[in-house]
Amino acid sequence: MPGDDIEMAITYGGKDINLLSVLSLIPGVYQEYLDGVSAGGSVNFDGSVSGVYNEESMPKVTANFAIVDGKVSYAEYPIPMEDIQVSAKFDYPSADLRETSFVMDKFHMKLDGEEVSAYLYFKDLEDYFWDFNMKGNLDLEKLTKVVKLEDMTLRGLVTADLATKGRMSDLDAGRYASLPTSGSFGMDNFYYESPDLPQGFGIMNTRMTFDPARIALTNFKGNAGKTDLNMDGEITNYLQYALADSAKLYGKLNFSSALVDANEWMTEETTTEEPVDTAALETVRIPENIDFVLTSKIDLIKYDDLELKDFGGKVIVRDGALRLEKAGFNLLDGYFELNGAYESAMALDKPLYDFDFKIKDLSISSAFESFVTVQKLAPVAEKMTGKFSTDFKIGGSLGADMMPIYEDMQGAGLMEIAQATLKDVKLLSAVSNVSKLNQQDGEVSLKDVLLATEIKNGRLYVEPFDLTIGGRKATVGGSTGVDGSLDYLMSMDVPSGQVGQALNSAISSFAGLDNAIGKDITLNLGIEGTYDDPKVKLLSAQPGTSGGSSGVKAALQAQAKEKVDAKKEEIKQELEAKKDSVTTEVKEKVDAAKEEIKQEVEETKEEVKDKAKDAVKDIFGKKKKGDGGR
Question: What are the CA-CA distances from residue 450 to residues 228, 346, 380, 385 (Å)?
Fold first, then answer.
C-alpha cells in the first residue's frame, strides 16, 4: 500500500441480470436443490466505495439492490412463487455510526394467490431506530413445493399483520407511548413432522396480538404427539429482551391438557457394552433473565410407569430457579402436594433443590417401587402393606446425572401410618432368633403411629415409636444409612419362659423373686449390619412391668415423651414457613433447625447403651454369684 492513508474510488453495478443466472452462483454442494428449477425476472445492483481509509476514518459506502418481476417454480409443482419485488439500500456516509442506515422500501411476493409484503427502515447504530411492518398470508404446504424440505412434513396457514416503530433509548426508558407497535399473528392447521420429531407437532389454531408493552396469546390449541395443548397468556418486556443482553423477559401462561404423555418423548434405552461417559452429562440450567409463571391444569400425566392424575399448580421460573407452588396431584391412589425449588444460578455443577411435600394415603409398597429415595433410605418398605401420610421437607444438591447426592441430603418431617404390616424379611428372623419369638408369630404391625423423622448426612433418623411384633409390644428408634447400614435400638416385652431357663434363673435372682418364670420380661436389643444382613444382639433383659416399659424402652420413652409433641409442632411450623432462597431454606430450616433432632437421637442412643451395659453386667454378675460361678 502507498502509505497510511489509502484513497479509494470504486464503483460497481449490474443491470437486468437474469434471476436464474444469479441462482447459478450458489456453491456446487447446493446445486441439487436447483434441479428442475426455472426462474425469471431481473436483478439490478450498484454502489460505490469512496474516501480515505486509515486508523481514524472509513470510506463512504453505498449499495443498492433490486429484484424486478421475479418468478421461481419447480417442474413438478406448476404454481410458481411470483411477483417478487425487492428494493433495498445500504448507506454508510461516514465513520459516525449514527448516520448508518438500511432501507428495504419494498418487499413483495405472491404464492398461489397468497401475498406477503414488508417494509423496513433501520438507522443509527448508536441509538437504534427502526420502522418495520409486515403483512400477508403464507401457506406453508405450498411453500414446501417451491423450497424442498427433505424427509419433512410441513403445512399450515400463517397470517401476520405487524407494525412497529421507535428508538432503543425510548425502549430502555420504558416510554412505550413513543413506540407505536401493533399487530396480530395467527396460525391455522399447522403441522410439522420430521425424523427428529416423529410424534409430530400441530397447532389447530392460535392467535397473538402485539403492542409496545406486551404480546398477548389469546388462544392456542394444538398437540405434541398424543399430548393436547391449550394455552393463553402474555409476554411483556419482549422488545428489550430481544435487543438488550441484560433485559429480562416476563410472562405468564395458563396451560391445560387432558393428557400429557411424557413417555412418548423419552429416549429408548439401547443395550451397549461401552461405558457411559458421565462427563458428557450436564445439569439443567435455569435462565436468570426470564421471569415466567406457568399455571397448569392437567387431567393425566404419564411418566414411565407412573400416572399422575388431576395435576394442578404453578411452575415459576425466576432468578435462575424453578419453583413449584401448590403443585398437587393424585398418584398411586395417594394425594401429593409439592412446594419448593430447583436452583442452578449459584452452582451449575452442583445445583440445589429444596422441597416441602405432603402425601396423603400413599401405598407403602408402591412408594418403594416408584421412588429411588425410598429404596435407598427405607428398604423395609418393600415388604410392607398399608398406607402412610407425611408432611416432609427435604433439600440438598444434585450430581451431573440430575440424581440426588444422598450424602448432602437433609430433611425432616412427620410420617403418619394408620395401619401397616411387615413380614417375611431377614430382620424379623434375626430378631426372632434373639428374642425366641416363633417366626410364624413374627409379623410386625403398626397402628396409629406418628413418626418424627430426619435425613442428615446420608442417614434417615427415626425418633422412638411403638409397634407390635408377634402380638408383643415393642419400641424402636435409630437410623438407616443410604449405604443400607442399620443402627437401631429396640425394646420389646416377651414372656420370660421363651428366653430359656438359664436366663430366667438369672432374672429371678436379679429381681429377688422365686417365680419369675411365666412373667413378662423386657428385652433390649441392638440392631446393626444391613437390611440384607442384619445383626441383632441382646443388650439387656429385665423383668417387665404391667406397662411393659424398662431398660432401653424406658430410656427411649423418657427421652421422647416430653419433647416429641413439641418437636412435631415445631416441624409443622417450619414446614409451613416459606423463604425466598433455596440456599437459606436448606441451611437454616433443614440444617440448623433440625440439628436438635439429631442430637436428641444421639443422646438417647448413648444413654441407652450406657444403661444397657450396666444392666447386662448386673444380670450376669448375679448369675455367676447364684450358680457357683458356672
Answer: 42, 37, 17, 17
Other residues' Cβ atoms within 10 Å of the Cβ of residue 375: 14
Distance separating alpha carbons of residues 453 and 413, to the nearest angstrom: 6
CA–CA gap between residue 184 and residue 609 (Å, rounded): 76
CA atoms within 13 A on the CB side of 344: 16
Rg (CA), the chain: 38
Residue 624: which residues within 8 A CB-CB, separation 6 or more?
Answer: 630
- Asked if 483 contacts 458 with a C-beta cutoff of 8 angstroms, the reply is yes
Angstrom distance (rounded) from CA 400 to CA 95: 49
How far is Cα 432 from Cα 494, in angstroms, rounded to an integer? 11
**What is the residue type of 78?**
P
User: What would the pLDDT profile of 225-240 be if each residue is shown by its tens digit?
Assistant: 999 999 999 999 887 7
Q: What percent of the chain has pLDDT over 70?
A: 74
- The type of residue at 26 is I
Return left, alpha or beta for 196; rule: phi > 0 is left, psi -120 to 50 is alpha, else beta: alpha
Residue 76 burial class via C-beta count within 10 angstroms: exposed 0-12, middle 13-18, buried 19 and up = exposed
Cα of 339 vs its chain's centroid, Å? 12
Does 426 score more than 80 pLDDT? Answer: no
Beta-sheet pairing, 114-123 with 129-139: antiparallel
Would the pTM count as exceeding 0.70? Answer: no
Beta strands in 364-426 (DSSP E): 384-397, 410-422
CA 453 – CA 461 distance, rounded (Å): 6
Please, are residues 141 and 156 in contact by the beta-carbon 8 Å criterion? yes
How many residues would you count in the chain?
630
What H or E segment, with its residue span, contains residue 490? strand 486-495
Contact of 220 with 231, CB cutoff 8 Å: yes
DSSP 398: B
Cross-strand partners of 479: 461, 487
The predicted structure's pLDDT at residue 573? 53
Vertex 253: Cα angle to 321 and 210 (nearest 5): 115
Read off the C-alpha cell for 428: 424379623
Cell of 617: 453386667
Instruction: Give me the pLDDT at residue 156, please.
Output: 93
- CA–CA distance, 119 with 132 (Å, rounded to integer): 6
Residue 625 CA to its chain's centroid (Å): 66
Q: Where are the beta strands (DSSP E) in 211-351?
A: 214-224, 227-236, 249-257, 260-261, 290-303, 306-318, 321-331, 334-343
Nearest-angstrom CA–CA distance, 345 and 322: 10
